[in-house]
Design the sequence.
């Protein structure tokens, strides 16, 4: 039988014999305390899931705010690019444009046609009496999906109309990739104001 002469001897034996440590823990700790680590882990998991849902909901709210701001002030976007604003194109307009682009030789599959018809914003404007367009995608934080869609949509509009069309993103901020495109002039960035949640006064 092992002889324990000091507290350090006891700790060494508990380290060497995990089953002793578990038995001692069960004797000393109440059932509530022994269940605490598992309960805390479950609580942390549920809290993390709630935070993920909340983050997703906030992203949706921010995206909707960016969209409402841009659609309500599309004339500002046109003015940024030196155009006189005429109108936002409707889904029916975009359907006709997609068909015209196909007739002009663009190979557009059904997914691309549907995506184009669901473009965030296509503006018809005027410069020096001539019609020009803007194909804009709207996000709180613009990413490569937004810039790719804007550039693709601008290409479809150009093919359909034979008129200039500027690709643009309307956002509060951009990923590095989108910012590089904006800095290079490949795409126009219409910067939206960061109008986050108002501070609650106590």
Sequence:
């Amino acid at each position: 039988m092992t002889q324990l002469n000091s507290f350090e001897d006891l700790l060494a034996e508990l380290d060497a014999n995990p089953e002793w440590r578990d038995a001692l823990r069960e004797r000393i700790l109440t059932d509530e305390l022994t269940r605490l680590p598992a309960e805390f882990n479950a609580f942390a998991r549920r809290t993390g899931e709630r935070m993920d849902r909340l983050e997703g909901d906030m992203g949706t709210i921010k995206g909707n705010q960016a969209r409402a701001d841009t659609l309500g002030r599309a004339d500002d976007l046109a003015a940024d690019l030196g155009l006189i604003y005429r109108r936002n194109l409707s889904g029916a307009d975009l359907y006709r444009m997609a068909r015209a682009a196909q007739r002009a030789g663009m190979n557009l599959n059904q997914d691309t046609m549907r995506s184009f018809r669901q473009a965030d914003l296509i503006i018809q404007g005027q410069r020096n009496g001539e019609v020009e367009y803007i194909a804009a995608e709207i996000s709180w934080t613009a990413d490569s999906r937004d810039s790719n869609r804007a550039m693709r949509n601008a290409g479809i509009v150009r093919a359909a109309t034979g008129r200039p069309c500027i690709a643009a993103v309307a956002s509060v901020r951009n990923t590095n990739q989108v910012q590089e495109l904006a800095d290079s002039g490949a795409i126009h960035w219409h910067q939206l104001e960061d109008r986050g949640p108002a501070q609650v006064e106590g």
